[in-house]
Amino acid sequence: MAEKMRESCLICQIIRDSIPSYKLYEDDLALAVLDVNGSNPGHCFVMPKNHYPIIEQVPDAELSHLFSVANKISSSLFENLKVQGTNIFVANGIPAGQTVAHFTINVMPRKENDGINLQWKPKQLTEEEMSTVELKLREQLKNIGVKKVEKTKKPAAVMRKAEQMHISDDEGDYFAKQLRKIP
Amino acid sequence: MPEQQTQQQLSPEQIKALQEKLKNMSPEELKEFQKKQCIFCQIIAGKVQSRKVYEDDSVIAVLDVNPANPGHMLIMPKEHYSIMPQMPDEETGHIFAVSKALSNAALRSLDAQGSNIIVANGIAAGQRAQHFMVHLIPRKENDNLSFQVPQKTIGDSELKKIRKVLSDSMGTKAEEPVIVPLPKISKEKKVVNAEFEEKKQQEKPKQLKKSKEGITEKKHKTKTQESGINLDDIAKVLGAR
Fold it and tell me: Which residues of A fall within a CB distance of 8 Å from B234?
C-alpha cells in the first residue's frame, strides 16, 4: 500500500524526476524546488525525500533538517532577491488546506499588497473556554513535560522526549487515509 | 497579536529622543534594549501572565489570547530573535520539532483535524510582534478560517533566473538543462513585477564559499558587504514598531 502511494504521489514523482521541476537544493533527505504557479516569484517548496503525508509522521531529525533548509532559503530570498519579507507556511491535513499527500513546507517571498492573506479574525473565547483548552493541551503534553531538562543535555534530550509522543501507526494511518481522499 | 496593544503610546518628542538614543547604541546595547521592550520576552520571563502549555530550556509555547481557532499556540525561542534568519540551525530545528509535538497534541486532545504552521518574517509578511514566533493553528472542517495564497503564472526565464541566484547562494549550483517547464505556463499573461526584474538585473550571482556539505556553512544571520540587505535592519524596523 505504502509503495503504491509513493508511486502515485505527485511529489515523489518530482523527487524521482518523473515530473520536471526547477530544483534549487537537494541532499539525502530534502529537496527544494521552485513553485511554477507560486504566489510570488521565488515561492519554494521544501519536502522530505521520504514519503510522509503529514508532519506528525516526519521524524524529528528530518523535520529539523527540512526547516533549516527552509530557513536557508528564506535568508537567501532576503539577501539575494531583496524581498521585503518571507512566510513559512505549512498546511497539515485537509481542513488546513493541504492538497498533496506529501508533507511540504512553503517558503514564500512577500511584498506589500501581493494578495497573499495569512491573517485571521480572532475568535472570542471566554476565559473558561481558554482554560479548558489550556488544560486539555497540558494534559496531553504532560509526557513531553514542562519540566526543565538539565542544562548539559539541552534540546536533543527534549527532542527525544518529544519523540515518545509519536503518533502510533494506527493513528498515522488514520490521518493518512483522510489524505487519500484528496482527488 | 493583541499583546502589542498594551504598549504605551509615546509623544512625538519621546519618539524623537528614542530614535536618537537608538542610533547611538552598540549592537549589544540595542539587543538588550529590544529585549526590554519586548512583551514576549516579558512573558518568557514570567513578568506578564500567559497560558503556558509547554516549556523547555530554549523554547516556550503559550496560547494566543486572540486565537484564530481554539488552541492557537505561539511557539517562541526564549532567546530574543526578531526574525527566523537570525536563528541558529539547532534552535530552528528544535522549535519546529516542538511545533510538531504540539500539533500532535492538538490533534489528540482538541479533536483538531489538521493544523497550520505559519511564520512571518518582516512586516510585509504580516509580522507584528518583534519576537520571532511560530504560529500553530489547529484546524477543523468549516472553521471559518481561510488563508489565501493566490497562484500566479511565472515565466520560465524568470524561474530560471531565480533558480540560479538561489541555488548559487545555497551552494548547490543547479545544472542548467535538467528541467522543462510544465506545459501550461507559456501563453497566459505573465505576472512579473517590473521593479523586481530590474533589481534582478543588477545582481551578479554571488561567489560564496562552498563547504563540503553544501549549505551547512552558509551564513544566515550576518550580512556580508556585497549582499546589500541587512537582516539586522529588518529586525530593527520591527523593533521600532
Answer: 78
Q: Which of A25, A151, A173 should we substitute to test contact with B (largest number of B Cβ atoms within 10 Å)?
A: A25
Could you tell me the residue ranges of all domains in chain A? 2-116+168-180
Predicted confidence (pLDDT) at residue A69 exceeds the cutoff of 80:
yes
Question: A78, B71: Cβ pair inside 8 Å?
Answer: no
Torsion of CA A110, A182, B73, B129, to 10 degrees: 10
Q: Which residues contact B234 (CB under 8 A, 6 or more apart)?
A: A78, B82, B83, B121, B122
Enumerate the residues of chain A whose CB falls inside 8 A of the CB of residue B104: 56, 165-167
CA atoms of A13 and B231, how far apart (whole Å): 36
Give me the helices (H) in A51-143, please: 60-80, 127-141
Per-residue pLDDT, B219: 43
Q: Note the ipTM here.
A: 0.79
Question: Smallest CA–CA separation between A8 and chain B, in Å?
Answer: 18
Whole-angstrom distance, CA of residue B181 vs CA of residue B199: 24
CATH number of B2-139: 3.30.428.10
The per-residue pLDDT for range A2-61, each reduced to its tens digit, is 677 777 889 999 998 888 899 988 888 999 999 988 889 999 999 999 999 999 899 988
pLDDT at B12 over 90: no
Are A154 and A161 contacting, i.e. CB atoms less than 8 angstroms apart? no
Q: What angle do CA B206, B207, B213 make, to 5 degrees?
A: 115
Chain-wide mean pLDDT for chain B? 75
Distance separating alpha carbons of residues A95 and B138, to the nearest angstrom: 9
**Cell 468549516 -> residue:** B142
3-state secondary structure of A86: strand
Domain extent listing, chain B:
2-139, 156-227
- SS3 string, B55-71, reads ECCCEEEEECCCCCCCC
**pLDDT digit string, tens, across residues A70-113:** 999 999 999 999 899 999 999 999 999 998 999 999 999 998 88
The CA angle A116-A122-A126, to the nearest 5 degrees, is 165
Give the mean model confidence (pLDDT) for residues B138-156: 89
Specify whether the CB–CB gap between A86 and A107 falls below 8 A: yes
CATH of domain A2-116+168-180: 3.30.428.10
